[in-house]
Write a structure and sequence with these properties.
By secondary structure, the protein is of the alpha+beta class. The protein has two helices and 20 strands.
């Protein structure tokens, strides 16, 4: 009975949906995290009677065909790239992006990764790095005797060196934009990679050419709404239960058929 297999695809799809929702909820406090949603599509149809086919010599046509579907599958889990809430942290190396753009991170293998997580640190050499120790693109190094580092809305990094009364410019933070942000590949560690679907990175300075501006001593939090996620979780659970009931009903029908005398 095909109903067994059709309902099983529904259960599998809702199981994947719950996995996506659980990952969103798990990352509610992850800086710069962007929630995902599961998207579904129906499977192939068995054409028993095709709509528009001729049914008589007089040219009578079938007004509506007879099609039996094969179920559903999860086709994509795109990220919702909306702005997350911006919270004050009072750390001078925390930076939030308000608007479009991603920070660029230099990976050890030579690739460039992208992130919305602006929780930066200094490594043993004074180089500005992310929380995983990867250098922020631009090669910004903060001397050990630097005081009161400031990061302006346009990404200019300055600091007072030693006892000097004039700030020294240390570098410029840049942002990257993409035509299709949802096409970026997640690699963990709050990092994304460019893909053919995302298009090439469009690099520019903050607060110009459509890029967002930077806020020092702030962090962008996850754009996960707990109420929305719980509502989606309940809906996914009920859909899973209904598919399970279909399997139970199909099993009872097969049992009744096997007991016929």
């Amino acid at each position: 009975m095909k109903a067994l297999y059709i309902a099983s695809t529904g259960m599998s799809a809702q199981e994947r949906n719950v996995e996506v929702i659980s990952n969103n909820i798990a990352n509610m406090r992850t800086p710069g995290f962007k929630r995902q949603r599961a998207e579904f599509e129906d499977l192939l149809y068995q054409q028993i009677s095709r709509a528009g086919s001729q049914t008589s010599d007089q040219g009578t046509l079938v007004p509506a065909g007879l099609e039996i579907g094969s179920g559903v599958r999860t086709v994509a889990t795109p990220r919702v790239m909306s702005q997350g809430s911006v919270n004050v942290t009072e750390r001078e190396l925390d930076v939030a992006i308000r608007g479009e753009g991603f920070f660029m991170v230099d990976l050890p293998d030579g690739r460039t990764a992208y992130t919305r997580d602006g929780s930066f640190e200094r490594n043993q050499d004074g180089t500005l790095v992310n929380s995983s120790g990867f250098a922020i693109s631009g090669g910004i190094t903060i001397p050990g005797d630097a005081n009161s580092v400031s990061i302006s809305p346009d990404g200019t990094v300055e600091a007072f060196i030693g006892t000097g009364g004039v700030p020294t410019q240390l570098g410029q933070l840049q942002l990257a934009r993409f035509v299709n942000k949802s096409g970026l590949e997640s690699m963990g560690d709050n990092l994304f990679l460019e893909t053919p679907a995302s298009g090439p990175a469009q690099v520019g300075i903050p607060n110009a050419d459509g890029n967002g501006n930077l806020l020092q001593s702030y962090l962008e939090m996850a754009n996960v709404n707990s109420v929305t996620e719980i509502a989606d979780l309940i809906a996914a659970q009920r859909a899973y239960e209904m598919n399970a009931r279909v399997i139970s009903g199909a099993d009872q029908m097969m049992q009744a058929t096997s007991q016929l005398r």
